[in-house]
Amino acid sequence: MWWRRSRVRRVLRQVLLVVASVQGATLLALAVVDHRRKKVRKPVVFPRVAPRSVTAGSSEVTVYTYGEDLYRDMLGAIRQARTKIFFETFIWKSDPVGQEFKDALIAAAERGVKVYVIFDEFANLVVPRRFYRFPPSISVRRHPIARLWPGLRNSGRDHRKLMVVDESVAFLGGYNIGSLYATDWRDTHARLTGDIVWDAENAFIDFWNLNRGRRRPALPDVGGLTWQPDMRIHRNIPRNLVYPIRSVYLDAFERASHHIYLTHAYLIPDSDILDSLIRAARRGVDVRIIVPAESNHIVADWLSRGFYGQLLRAGIRLFLYQGAMVHAKTATIDGQWSTIGTANLDRLSLSGNYEINMEVYNADVARQMEEIFRLDSSNTVELTLPAWSRRHAMVKFSETVLTPFRPLL
Q1: Residue 28: inside a domain, yes or no?
Q2: Is 93 among the domain residues?
Q3: How far apart are CA 249 and CA 254, in angstroms?
Q4: Of 198, 230, 262, which residue constitutes the final position of a domain?
Q5: What is the value of pTM for the model shown?
Q6: Measured between alpha carbons, how far is 51 from 226 in angstroms, rounded to an integer?
Q7: What is the residue range of 188's domain?
Q8: How far apart are CA 121 and CA 111, in angstroms?
């Protein structure tokens, strides 16, 4: 009997080795294709909506779909700051746009503004370390690549993009800081004024105090002045094993009765998110999803495509954004509910990273988000089930081979 068990183990090892080899070869081929694709960058042109302010209860929301518009107003807020700036980002490039933000923050600190900066260390490994040298007048926290204590639950990346100035204005959404994002990426960000700014500021304060370590002083933590019935800000906090954004999406999908419009850079849903969208479509909800035809992460594209057949068979409509990377993380449902934030519909965002999303119950905001969705749809090609079924057998095989990597993204 022992030799039979030994032979079975040997066969299993060989099978696993073959599978691993095929997966490795597939990933390598995708990396080569991606490298060649990025070397040939075409001019980027895409439709966009000019920023417009909408009142939501006791707050005001301005939605941005073009980086230059957003950066102009963010830099304007920094240059007008009088008391304090909370600045947090995932990627911060050392290019002209990144340098302009750095210079503006340093200038603010030099005129007496208290400036606090957080950025993710892993996301900026390719950026020269000297770029992140700041004068002592600026309090800086690099979110570390990994921590041994308290273990894996604190290993999430800081994927948030948040800025709060003088307790009067806040910015949050999908935009990182860099020249590429200013003109070549289609993303979505929001400017907030009014009572909701306290929630955004509190989100920064809590993150700073939770992760500041022993050397940095804590920021004052004060209660809010008002409760917000129209808007909420939700935060994923891996260290506390708190991931409300996923629940917010699931609840919104379950409530949908007419339409769900999603725009997401990386669509790799877990089983509950996937089932909730399919159930909505089967009860007659018009579910439409805009995704990039080609994103900046080719492996994420291929993992996402593994879900296309299932979504299309359920009656969900997929639209492939053309000519630019769409990096938005937004949704609007039934003309009443909307969300803008940093969380993608994938496992890394919904159950891994530090994320921040605003949730709005407001028909005017939803109307503006629907207008943006319709304009974005004009720059897409709809993917149909017959067309998707005709893809090459080798493509189908590669998607299957990469399936085990879904939980990693």
Answers
A1: no
A2: yes
A3: 9
A4: 230
A5: 0.87
A6: 27
A7: 52-230
A8: 28
358 and 398 housed in the same domain: yes
Report whether pLDDT(71) > 60: yes
Distance of CA 186 to the CA centre of its chain: 12
Same domain, residue pair 373 and 226: no
β partners of residue 392: none
φ, ψ of residue 354 to 5 degrees: the values are: -75, 125
- The single-letter code of the amino acid at 352 is G
Tokens 């905001």 locate to 365
CA distance 23 to 401: 6
Domain count, the chain: 2
- Within 8 A by CB and 6+ apart from 342, the residues are 90, 159, 160, 161, 172, 173, 174, 329, 349, 355, 356, 357
128 part of a folded domain: yes
| One domain for residues 281 and 166 | no
Residues 81 and 221 placed together within one structural domain of the fold: yes
314, 282 contact by CB (below 8 A) = yes
- State whether 273 and 391 are in the same domain: yes
Extract the tokens encoding 259: 């339409």
Judge contact between 338 and 330, C-beta under 8 A. yes
Task: Judge whether 249 and 331 are in contact, CB under 8 Å.
Answer: yes
Going by C-alpha positions, the residue among 262, 278, 259 that lies closest to residue 270 is 278
Tokens of residue 306, six digits? 């593994």
Peptide bond into 135 cis (omega under 30): no
- Cβ-contact 108, 78 below 8 angstroms: yes
Enclosing H/E stretch for 273: helix 271-282
Give the rounded distance of the alpha carbon of 293 from its chain centre.
17
Residue range 257-301, pLDDT digits in tens:
999 999 999 999 999 999 999 999 999 999 999 999 987 776 667
Let me know whether 217 and 253 are in one domain. Answer: no
Of the candidates 341, 372, 359, 364, the one whose C-alpha atom is nearest the C-alpha of residue 55 is 364
pLDDT tens for 358-399 read 999 999 999 999 999 999 999 999 999 998 887 645 454 455
Sign of CA dihedral 85, 88, 93, 97: negative
Q: Which residues of 118-150 are buried (b: 16+ CB within 10 A; e: fewer)?
A: bbbbebbeebeeeebeeeeebbbbebeeeeeee
Tell me, yes or no, whether 90 and 193 share the same domain: yes
Q: How far is CA 94 from CA 103, 128, 162, 268, in A?
A: 11, 7, 19, 30
